[in-house]
């Protein structure tokens, strides 16, 4: 069961009046070493509950966690798609059992955890856009993994996740600056008591 706070967050995100529709949303922790996959998962459930065909993408190839709590296997997934070993996208998308919510798990990474550049990321996100109304991508902190910056470049908006009394202001500013350098649209910060 998700919190009312996630439902309110979903409503607020949908109410944003942006130049472009908010179809692809990147969610990333503000601090290195942090994980906030639960926030992304619960927000995805909130979008699905509201009747939006929603896809969660676990882009944290070092510490995949979105599959946890959804009762789905972690592989195959995104890594297989990026390396060409996964076949078509539909072969690695997983139905979660929650109406309107599917998951593209991270998969099992090989020695090269971040196997692609920005161009391939853009092509992948274009293909995913045809499969869901809302795509929520969970990725590692932007100031430590260039892969997250490539995802941010091709997303419609990015939201930083900060843990109350744990995320340092300096980390939040570093993350925002890293995202702004690649001209990502930073929509705001989710404060999380996780």
From TrEMBL:
Keywords: ATP-binding, Kinase, Nucleotide-binding, Transferase. Its EC number is 2.7.10.2. One of its GO terms (molecular function) is non-membrane spanning protein tyrosine kinase activity. GO terms for cellular component: plasma membrane. PANTHER family: FERRIC ENTEROBACTIN TRANSPORT PROTEIN FEPE, TYROSINE-PROTEIN KINASE. This is Tyrosine-protein kinase YveL. The gene is yveL.
């Amino acid at each position: 069961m998700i919190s009312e706070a996630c439902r309110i967050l979903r409503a607020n995100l949908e109410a944003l009046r942006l130049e472009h529709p908010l179809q692809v949303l990147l969610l990333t922790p503000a601090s290195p070493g942090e994980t906030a996959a639960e926030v992304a998962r619960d927000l995805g459930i909130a979008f699905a509950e509201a009747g939006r065909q929603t896809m969660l993408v676990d882009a944290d190839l070092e510490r995949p966690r979105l599959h946890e709590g959804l009762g789905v296997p972690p592989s195959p997934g995104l890594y297989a798609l990026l390396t060409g070993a996964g076949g078509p996208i539909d072969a690695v998308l997983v139905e979660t059992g929650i109406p309107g919510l599917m998951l593209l798990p991270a998969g099992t990474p090989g020695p090269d955890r971040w196997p692609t550049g920005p161009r391939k990321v853009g092509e992948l996100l274009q293909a995913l856009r045809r499969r869901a109304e809302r795509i929520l991508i969970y990725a590692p902190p932007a100031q430590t993994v260039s892969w997250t910056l490539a995802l941010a470049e091709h997303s419609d908006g990015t939201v930083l996740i900060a843990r109350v009394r744990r995320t340092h202001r300096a980390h939040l500013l570093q993350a925002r600056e890293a995202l702004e350098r690649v001209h990502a649209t930073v929509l705001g910060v989710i404060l999380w008591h996780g």
